[in-house]
Amino acid sequence: MIRDMKDRGMSNREIARDLGISRNTVSKLLRTTRLADHRKRERGSKLDPYREKIRALIDEHNLSAVRILEEIRKMGYDGGYTILKHYCHELRKDRRIQAVYRYETDPGKQSQVDFGEFGYIDMDGKSRKLYAFSMILGYSRMRYVEFTTYISTENVIRMHLNAFSFFGGFTDTILYDNMKQVVIDRKPKASESRFNQKFMDFAEYYGIVIRLCYPYRPETKGKIENTIKYVRNNFWAGRTFESLSDINVQCREWLRKVNSQVHGTTHEVPLQRLKDETLNPLSSVPAYMTRKEESRKISRDCYVSYKGNRYSVPWKYAGRECRIIEESATLKIQVDSTIVAEHSLIPGTGRISRKKEHFEGLLKAIREENSAVYGQMVETRDLKRYEEVS
What we know:
alpha+beta; Nucleotidyltransferase, domain 5; 3 domains; four-stranded antiparallel β-sheet; 13 helices
């Protein structure tokens, strides 16, 4: 029994705990070469009465070992978790189909979305995790990639809209993994899952049908999985970047190149196949209103930086923490609960939006402050004091 448990990948500690013997005994028995002296004794397992139930729970609902443990505990099982976990692993291995069927979609029917993690980036003096949002059209293999440090539901929606604009429309369905921005509580049956209502409102607005990847079958969304790997190896590796904005500028240039090259699977150019995608046009419905919020610190020269551009703020808020809110084409700057500035979003990078009224009274305030400081430094003395010093 010990040898069998060891062959299944269990550690000496796990074997000792499940059999109620010491680790030294386990080690000693595993080291011996005299198998005849240590023949397996006919001994049942605490798991035996529940094996059929376990198999049914996996076949019918594909439950995890943790969930199965909860179910058989109710039935009286008082054994360990490790032996159950290994038994479930063996059942899944026998159950799973190893062959993969390459699923090709018709034009305009499906796209796939996923995120990849790309380390950390310094922004406004803070280290933030960097993500790559990626979408690929199933038929043409057109790719869209956008890097971000925020993966809130609002920002994910905004990046979907950016992708739709990049492609010139959207597909009937979109396939996702278990992203919390899409599905909050994933069940074996997708219809029983609890979805993110804010994201579902967005999908329903455009009439998009949400599809979820089947649990334990990442091959279902192989197109997007391969895209993330391709971004990591073909774009990210070996490049240097100055900022998040610079990453996305370089990424756009890279997308223009790779979408114009022959794809390894279709043996056609994605940009050419895009003409046959028959996407749903964005003009079919009014523009969806999006809202994105981020934290920033207002600089001493009264600006906040956003997407590579700078926007002015009233001078009395210099040095304060603020929230920047992007709504459609407008950027709002909020301090505490008050909107203190509004700007139209500037296209491109390296540009400045400056409002003259944000600096009114600043020079006067500086002069008054300097006058007060220097006035205190000048001391008036009686002339008799100078005669005494003489």
